[in-house]
Amino acid sequence: MAASSTFDNANNVNAGEHMQTFFRTILIGAALAVGAAAVASAAGATNPVVGTWTLNLEKSKFTPGPAPKSQTRTYAQTDQGTTLTVTGVAADGSSISQQATFKYDGKDYPISGSADYDTLALKKVNGSTVKSTLKLGGKVVGSATRTISAHGKVLTLKIKATNAKGVPYEAVAVFDKQ
After folding, report:
1. What are the beta bridge partners of residue 161?
2. How do residues 70-115 score in pLDDT, each as one tens digit?
3. Residue 67 lies in domain
4. One domain for residues 72 and 115
5. Where are the beta strands (DSSP E) in the chain?
6. How far apart are the C-alpha atoms of 156 and 162, rounded to whole Å?
7. 8 confidence band (pLDDT: 50, 70, 90)
């Protein structure tokens, strides 16, 4: 009887140690998950453009026009900088597909998919505004200002440039965050 009691006590102690180890593992895992979420949240908070934005045609203006039928801009933070992917449908029904990865350091970064410019140079003005210079073949062909609203739900892109055919154009493109 005494042997059985000793065995039961040993099992109870062993089970208690396993439970403590189990709860410690859960606690550490939860702490890591909360920490990772905080880091991810802080990264998004420092760059309010990160996310997907859809063109609001009713609030936008393209001069001389015509406006694209649709456009979506997706910004992501990567180790190389901010990646921009633009997709949509142009006024003539053709596909829009542009991509660039850049930093806000004023240096030229290539952009693919645009006939009007092949590099962008971006600089932050403040936490919600970025100015960029558009170049084609090394020559400045325009500028753009991107602003995020105070509530972080509207992106306004103002562009003044000359297209590849030498025709000046302006646009105020308003995007809603998805």
Report:
1. 142, 169
2. 999 999 999 999 999 999 999 999 999 999 999 999 999 999 999 9
3. 51-177
4. yes
5. 51-55, 61-63, 70-78, 81-89, 95-102, 105-112, 119-124, 129-136, 139-148, 154-162, 168-177
6. 19
7. low
